[in-house]
Automatic annotation (TrEMBL):
The keyword Hydrolase does not apply. The chain crosses the membrane at residues 27-45, 57-74, 115-134, 140-157, 164-183, 216-238, 259-286, 306-329, 357-378, 390-413, 425-446, 452-473. InterPro entries: AA-permease/SLC12A_dom, APC_superfamily. The keyword Magnesium does not apply. It comes from Splendidivirga corallicola. It is found in: Membrane. It is a multi-pass membrane protein. The lineage of its organism: Bacteria, Pseudomonadati, Bacteroidota, Cytophagia, Cytophagales. Residues 43-472 form the Amino acid permease/ SLC12A domain. This is Amino acid permease. Keywords: Membrane, Transmembrane, Transmembrane helix.
Length: 496
């Protein structure tokens, strides 16, 4: 039976439809904390350091503080919305209730792009590390990609208990790896000489300043703004937490705590790694050119003789993020499929383990396909440059769009449904959402100033336009009255 509501068609399914799409509750507050921190932690191992070339150490520090403010505003807004709308849909669910079916689909499509591309990039770097350790050569990279996708997809399918236990373990191991580095660095730091050893050259590009003692902002405040996209990697993907709402034991109580504790952990870690990684003799300039900043720091502290062992240690942070974001795209595809935005077969869960196995397999297959396509388009030798210059930036662009849409959803829900039961109220209120939107828009603008970013953003825009055309022609007539959709079209208000 189909119903027409505001230009979209819904089909009401019987109970058997939802029985075959059940999830299992397991996660407590610390499992949610680990899921959020684990998704982000690879950005503390590598990626952030490239911002040093854009703004110097001072520019990167201020950029990190600005981006941290954006994420605090975002996570507090999400912490309010998630307990009020405790569905697996996360960002799609918020936007569907606030912005209608078009807004819900577009937000879901944007977030889907972020969560598919991010683990594809992460597994590329995991495989590069492993290829170096085992000396297998670049021609073996696709086998590493396939192996890691298979392993962690199977682990995610095996059950929510195992998935969350593994998340906690790898997240704690990654943090311990960082803590060991921080403690080891203390006796070797010289902040003035090493962290401030970047100057602006005649062309405005970063150059080595022998002896250090340079300017705090060698590229001026414009360097701060150019460093913003790189600072994003210190926090990117913590917003995935609400996707675990239907697998949380008590999402109304635990989701805000998981988001808040996660942000506190990540801010401390971000400031520590920025200070100590740049202050050891490696220095900011060398760090800004490094593809493996933490590993290079360990090599400096402990010597090249144990480099392979250190590389395996450094992989832990990448694995933590890879595993947790696979969890995220599985739930994100599942929620959009259950509501009919994606093919409904993708939301079927395993009969015994109650995990969205088809969504997990599909997301992994697409991620692996993207990697193989980039390898084909760029050539074996240039694939790292292509991935670094395109896929990473597409993920950042889609994340910024998602943050704008989620913050707009927060503002709209405050206006449209003021009496909605809100177990948690953001202490930042509307101001936090407005600040998030402003910083996300500035970050996108500075992405567009770089040619490689511009190409990536335009590619992402083309993909999103194709998605919207599909929804307009066909997708909007195939929707299902899932929990997210029923809540969105309900006029019922719950008073605190």
């Amino acid at each position: 039976m189909k119903n027409q509501i505001k230009g979209v068609s819904y089909k009401k399914m019987d109970q058997s439809y939802f029985e075959s799409r059940k999830l299992k509750r397991h996660a407590g507050v610390w499992s949610l904390w680990a899921l959020g921190v684990g998704a982000v932690i690879s950005g503390h191992f590598s990626g952030w350091n490239l911002g040093l070339a854009s703004g110097g150490w001072g520019g990167m520090l201020i950029a990190t503080i600005i981006i941290a403010i954006m994420y605090i505003g975002l996570t507090q807004s999400v912490a309010e919305m998630s307990p009020a709308l405790p569905h697996t849909g996360g960002a799609y669910s918020f936007a569907r209730s606030a912005l209608g079916p078009w807004g819900g689909f577009f937000t879901g499509l944007v977030e889907n792009m972020e969560f598919i591309l991010t683990p594809a990039v992460i597994v590329f770097f995991i495989s590069s590390y492993m290829s170096g350790v085992f000396e297998t050569g670049t021609e073996s990279l696709p086998y590493w990609w396939l192996g890691f996708y298979l392993l962690f997809t199977i682990l995610n399918i095996s059950g929510v208990e195992l998935s969350f236990r593994l998340t906690v373990v790898v997240t704690i191991l990654a943090l311990l790896c960082l803590i060991v580095f921080w403690i080891s660095s203390i006796g070797h730091i010289d902040f003035i000489k090493n962290a401030l050893n970047i100057k602006a050259g005649a062309t405005g590009k970063a150059e080595l300043l022998e002896g250090g003692d340079g300017r705090f902002l060698p590229m001026g405040f414009s360097g701060v703004l150019k460093a913003l996209p790189f600072a994003v990697w210190l926090f990117l993907a913590i917003e995935q937490l609400p996707l675990a709402a239907e697998e949380s034991v008590d999402p109304k109580r635990d989701m805000p705590k998981g988001l808040t504790y996660g942000m506190i952990t990540l801010i401390i870690s971000a400031l520590m790694i920025l200070w100590l990684n740049a202050s050891i003799p490696l220095g900011s300039f060398a760090l800004s050119q490094s593809g493996e900043p933490l590993l290079d720091g360990f090599r400096l502290l402990y010597g090249d003789s144990i480099a392979k062992g250190l590389a395996l240690v450094a992989v832990i942070g990448l694995i933590a993020s890879f595993h947790t974001i696979i969890f995220a795209f599985g739930r994100q595809i599942y929620s959009l499929s259950r509501a009919g935005y994606f093919p409904v077969s993708l939301s079927i869960t395993h009969s015994k383990r109650k995990t969205p196995y088809i969504a997990l397999i599909t997301g992994s297959a697409i991620g692996f396909g993207v990697l193989m396509l980039t390898r084909f388009l760029s050539g074996t030798e240039q694939s790292e440059v292509f991935i670094g210059g395109a896929l990473l930036n597409m993920a950042v662009f889609s994340a910024m769009l998602s943050y704008i849409l989620q913050s707009a959803s927060f503002l709209m829900l405050r206006a449209k449904r003021p009496n909605l039961e809100r177990p948690y109220i953001s202490p930042l209120g509307k101001a936090g959402a407005y600040v998030t939107i402003l910083i996300a828009m500035i970050t996108i603008y500075y992405q567009l100033q770089d040619v490689s970013y511009r190409i990536a953003v335009l590619s992402a825009i083309v993909y999103l336009i194709i998605g919207l055309i599909y929804f307009g022609i066909r997708g909007r007539h195939r929707l299902i009255l899932s929990p997210e959709e029923e809540f969105a079209i309900s006029k019922r208000e719950e008073h605190p």
